[in-house]
Design brief:
6-stranded antiparallel beta sheet, mainly beta, 354 residues, single chain, disordered N terminus
């Protein structure tokens, strides 16, 4: 399946800048995994002080935004409509093992109000998403960057008013220990627009650490239709400019490893799951860089291949033995003590790194 022209192209290497579109999740490993529960506590209460602490979070630099996504499994419901909440958000270092129902005692340092008291418009979540997890997210930008320390992550929301109080607003959530932890993933470069497609070809690669095995999904979306497709894989990123030869830059050395995946469907989509992959703790923290290549005779480039963007996946640690996230709250923005007790699990949060 290897193209001799593609192999020859490895002689031209450049230092193109990475184009990163990246967020991580809290709890870790839920970037593309739907939780088993829905949590209505933030969007459904007239007033609230809520803290959530996470020992699994793996910071990747400063944070400038949090996002909450609609539960992807609940059906359409007219009660999940838009609403306006007056709120503020606090970020802090914390210690999950010492968490108490006294809110202020859970701050261990690096505490900052990242969103000063303001009114935030929550979007309409009436319709169930076509696919889970949902891409219909509530994004809240910080007033200024916040950089987490090495301690456990704590985020806090204080709700002072809510014009939609009393009706559910289901945020994606999970109750405790996940079956597996998904790799962190950074997109690099740009995919091509394959013949007859409006969207660029999208790399769909995830590596899951189950603790006793690994599994891997390799695939592409909106690439060339009904086309033989190959995954290019390497342990390091190699940037090769496309020029007039290729429709986009290569992010993987095509001489490293080529894995035939099969033929895309009529929509240009294809996913292959490799399961199981024998487990070794030595894989934890290892990097795999992938890029998908589909034969595309309609391409204007010299080499008629549609490439996806590159994806840099870092294999995660195994699932924790105990729940890595705990939540506590009271239905009062100025409360000093949680009335909920300390609950295992909580809301799945998308954390944006600029």
């Amino acid at each position: 399946m290897r193209s001799h022209i593609l192999v020859a192209a490895t002689a031209v290497v450049s230092s193109l800048p990475a184009q990163i579109d990246h967020f991580t999740s809290s709890p870790n490993g839920y970037e593309a995994v739907e939780g088993a529960l829905a949590d209505n506590v933030i969007g459904g209460n007239a007033a609230l002080r809520l803290q959530q602490c996470d020992s699994s979070f793996e910071p990747e630099g400063s944070i400038d935004r949090l996002a909450f996504r609609r539960d992807g499994l609940l059906p359409d419901n007219s009660g999940y409509g838009a609403r306006n909440l007056e709120l503020e958000i606090v970020m802090s270092d914390s210690d999950l093992s010492a968490l108490s129902t006294t809110f202020d005692a859970n701050y261990t340092g690096n505490t900052a109000t990242v969103v000063a008291r303001t009114t935030v418009s929550f979007p309409d979540w009436t319709l169930q998403p076509v696919l889970a997890p949902s891409t219909n997210v509530l994004q809240i930008d910080f007033d200024s960057l916040w950089t987490p320390g090495t301690a456990d992550l704590l985020w806090e929301v204080r709700v002072y008013s809510n014009d939609g109080a009393g009706s559910d607003y289901p945020m994606d959530a999970d109750s405790g220990i996940p079956q597996f932890i998904q790799s962190s993933r950074t997109s690099v470069g740009l995919g091509c627009r394959a013949t007859g497609q409006f969207f660029r070809a999208a790399n769909i690669t995830w590596i899951n650490n189950w603790g006793t095995k690994l599994s891997m999904d390799l695939g592409v979306g909106t690439s060339a239709k009904n086309s033989p497709t190959v995954a290019l894989l390497d342990a390091v990123r190699t940037q090769i400019p496309g020029g007039s030869l290729l429709c986009t830059a290569l992010e993987v050395n095509p001489a490293a490893l080529n894995l035939p995946l099969g033929v895309t469907d009529a929509g240009g989509n294809l996913t292959v799951t490799i399961d199981p992959i024998p487990y070794s703790s030595a894989f934890e923290g290892a990097t795999l860089v992938t890029q998908m290549a589909s034969l595309d005779p309609g391409q204007s480039a010299t080499i008629p291949v549609a490439f996806s963007q590159g994806a840099v996946n870092v294999i995660s640690d195994p699932p924790p033995a105990t729940a890595p996230v705990k939540q506590l709250w009271a239905a009062d923005a100025t409360a000093t003590t949680a009335t909920s007790g300390i609950l295992d699990g909580g809301i799945i949060l998308q954390v944006n790194h600029p």
